[in-house]
Amino acid sequence: MAASESFAEVMARLRTGDQAAAAEVFRRFVDRLVRLAKRRFNADMRRRVDPEDVVQSAFKSFFLRYGAGKLAVRDWGNLWGLLTVITLRKCCDHVQFHRADCRDLQREVAQPGSPDQAPWWEAMARDPMPEEAAVLAEIVEQVMRESPEHERPILELSLQGYTAQEISQRVGRAERSVRRLRGQLRKRLERLLET
């Protein structure tokens, strides 16, 4: 970024998809956001969730929404605040996910072994295989295509981690309607995943 380039100029370039502007925003905030995410996870949680991955996901969400004109920022401080909120929400989502009864970290029992030996579940933990990720992406795209136009923003915001209340405010629909629609979308996704 040129020394004379203003915040508004960087953000205007970012809105058009300029990679140099995205790199500038990333460089400016990545270290602080990773430190923030690390503080949100205890050691057990960090074995399952990489704070850097959470921050990457937060940047991706921000860049997509900002590029689509769904977010507005006034200055660097406002941008920091927005990225902080997105990162913290993603951290909370991961904690909730990994504390669900079927995956609760508290239910795991350490296996006996030498102190320098990695826990047995680390060897089994893995990211989805490329084929699995591709199948899931196709299913989500199929549900998006088959959904009526007025339902798509609700699906998009749900996938980005927004609560029913937040989605209700954003799309101007009753929270109860949003919850009902999210339930229907979830059932559709589950049916497609079973086939």
What does it look like?
The structure is a single chain. The protein folds into two domains: 7-106, Orthogonal Bundle (Rna Polymerase Sigma Factor, Chain: A); 130-194, Arc Repressor Mutant, subunit A (Orthogonal Bundle). The chain is an all-alpha fold and 195 residues long. The protein has helices spanning 7-15, 19-40, 43-48, 51-67, 76-98, 120-124, 130-146, 152-159, 164-171, 175-194. The protein is built from ten helices and no strands. It is globular. The relative contact order is 0.08. Residues 108-126 have low confidence and may be disordered. The protein starts with 6 loop residues before the first helix and ends with a helix.
CATH topology of the largest domain: Rna Polymerase Sigma Factor, Chain: A
Structural class: mainly alpha
Could you state the oligomeric state of the chains shown? single chain
How many β-strand runs? 0
Strand content: under 5%
- Per CATH, the architecture of the largest domain is Orthogonal Bundle
Summarize the main sheet.
none
* CATH class type of the largest domain: Mainly Alpha
Could you list the spans in which at least 5 consecutive residues all have pLDDT below 50? 108-126
Q: Give me the strand/helix succession.
A: HHHHHHHHHH
What portion of residues is helical? 55-70%
In angstroms, what separates the terminal alpha carbons?
A: 49 Å
Average pLDDT number: 78
Overall 3D shape: globular
Instruction: Compute the number of helices.
Output: 10
* Tally of structural domains: 2
Rg from alpha-carbon coordinates = 19 Å
